[in-house]
Structure formats: C-alpha cells, structure tokens
Amino acid sequence: MDNHISDIYIRSFRGISNLELKDIKLINILTGDNNGGKTSVLEVIQSIKNPFDFRTWRSLIRRGERISVIRGMSYYEGFYDLFDINKEEKIIEYDVCLINGQKYNVKVIAERVEEEIMEKDLVKLQGDYNAMDEDSLQDNFLNVSKLNLK
Question: Does residue 149 fall inside a structural domain?
Fold first, then answer.
C-alpha cells in the first residue's frame, strides 16, 4: 500500500484560505516567497499523522522569538495562532488525499469563551510555579480566554 500524498486542499489553516495542490505525488521540494505559507502546508501534512491527538497540534505551535511559554505566551495563544486571525469564525479545515485513494478530512471548529479561574491555577497551568508566592494567589480570580473545540 502506497501512502504518498496526491492532493491537498486547505480551506482554512493559519493564513491559508482555499489552497489546492493537485497531483503532487512527485514533488519533493516546496518553494515560495517568505511568509507565503510553505511551512503551513508542511504542518498540515504533519498533522495528518494523528489529527485527533492534542499532542499533534501542540507540536505545531511555533516557538520563535515571539512565542515562548516561559515568557508568557500560553499554549492557548499558540494554538489560537493555528486559526486564521482575519476570520471571525475559527475553523481549521483541509483534505489530504493519498495516491492509494485514501482521503483524510480534518475540520476543527473553535469557540472562544471567557472563564473565571483562580490565579494560582492559571500559574500552574502555565507551568510557572516560581512566578509568585502561592499564598498570595489563593483568592485572586482572573477572566481568561478558552477555546472549546469541536
């Protein structure tokens, strides 16, 4: 059984809308201008390995200079960056077809909601246990954004 990719159709992922790559089974190089979406296409291909596992999506969070969980960017913000920031509706959607006829359709819909959480719990979620004295955080509540995924 051959699992080479034949076609990719990206409806919405990061900054890509309606990109169709047909008959690409012989392509082994992807070129284009800076910030043209090459990495995003490769991330779509990477996500096909296991699109229902959160670890797959977590691995796509870009950790350049502007993204650092340690410096205050949360996984939420990195994950939110996978969606098209220019669209009100937050959807990731694409199809990948293999030359053996197998087709993968991935669609993730996110709804942004606000949730009240204790500050000490937020600090723990962010993995920054040394940020503040836990006793000083006990009664402080914060409103934080959350993504409900479907």
Answer: no
